[in-house]
Design a protein that fits this description.
Blueprint: H1 10-14, E1 25-28, H2 34-46, E2 52-54, E3 59-63, E4 65-68, E5 71-74, H3 79-92, E6 101-107, E7 113-118, E8 125-132, E9 135-141, E10 160-161, E11 177-181, E12 186-190, H4 191-195, E13 197-201, E14 206-208, H5 222-225, E15 229-231, E16 239-242, E17 247-253, E18 258-259
Parallel strand pairs: 5-18
Antiparallel strand pairs: 1-12, 2-3, 3-6, 4-5, 6-17, 7-10, 7-13, 8-12, 8-17, 9-11, 9-13, 14-16, 15-16
Bound molecules: 2-oxoglutaric acid (AKG) and fe (ii) ion (FE2).
């Protein structure tokens, strides 16, 4: 990726990476090199087994400390994570201070993550670095845009908000959309895309990226040229990812309320 330093203001810097019709969704293909991807994977799988928490449909590592409704009981990020989070922070200019929390999710080919909204403890901006198998991430308008403030007791480790029961409050201008997340890409979404939408990944081995806002038919485009993708139709029919390997994602966020003294390291 070319350097995107030296321009004032993240909005300006990141404008060229906006995809789709929601202007707060940005996608950067090949944000890291294959060697950087390998190094991250090596560090992730060198972590002690006890670092993994197994959930029903994926497993995860939590780095940076424990997130509570009231803030972060902070722990230093390890240097191998700081390298990449500082780069994202400095280059995107979208975070008000350095990223201090990273969730690493591992998904097997038939695993995904339910549609959810990230919790209120975080700044409403998230950067997701993808490694391994490509997947499609779906965004749907929050079923209840007027009451996104409810607290989440169910999974403080994840700080995920499950949607409240659907109510017909969706302004028609908010349309669902999908993104194709290729390995080594960086997705950043914020503000309206963060608070007004739920995001999720289907727990199926085949993902259709026909409707992905960052995939076109052009063979030179990111989507068309990389591995793991096939075109099932004779002439531009269904575009399908058949997931054969695991996907690992790094969800990088900032918790502004930090309690530094509560956890000694
Ligand atoms: O794996 C991903 O790309 C999404 C993860 C996510 O949404 C989360 O950790 O809140
Ligand atoms: Fe999320």
């Amino acid at each position: 990726m070319e350097k995107i330093l030296g321009v004032e203001g993240g909005e300006e810097v990141m404008r060229k990476y906006v995809v789709g019709s929601v202007p707060t969704v940005m996608y950067i293909p090949e944000y890291i090199s294959p060697a950087e991807e390998d190094l991250l994977l090596k560090n992730i799988y060198q972590a002690p087994l006890s670092k993994w928490k197994t959930l029903k449909n994926r497993k995860l590592q939590n780095w940076g400390g424990v997130v509570h409704e009231k803030g972060l009981l902070a722990q230093q990020l390890p240097s191998w994570l700081k390298t990449v989070t500082n780069r994202i922070y400095e280059e995107s200019k979208l975070f008000p201070s350095a990223i201090n929390h990273v969730l690493i999710n591992e998904y097997l080919p038939d695993q995904g993550i339910m549609p959810h909204q990230d919790g209120p403890a975080y700044m409403p901006v998230v950067a997701i670095l993808s490694l391994g198998s490509p997947v499609v991430m779906d965004f749907v308008p929050h079923p209840n845009l007027e009451s996104t403030e409810q607290s989440s007791e169910n999974d403080t480790q994840d700080m995920i908000h499950e949607p409240s029961p659907p109510e017909p409050k969706i302004p028609s201008k908010y349309l669902p959309f999908s993104l194709l997340l290729m390995p080594r890409s960086l997705l950043i979404f914020k503000d309206m895309a963060y608070s007004g939408y739920l995001h999720g990944i289907k727990d199926s081995e085949d993902h259709c990226y026909d409707e992905a806002v960052n995939a076109t038919n052009g063979p030179s485009h990111d989507a068309g040229t990389l591995t793991g993708l096939k075109n099932d139709g004779e002439d531009g029919g269904d575009k399908v990812i058949h997931r054969t390997t695991r996907r690992i994602s790094l969800t990088c966020r900032l918790v502004t309320k930090v309690h530094k003294h509560l956890i000694k390291i």
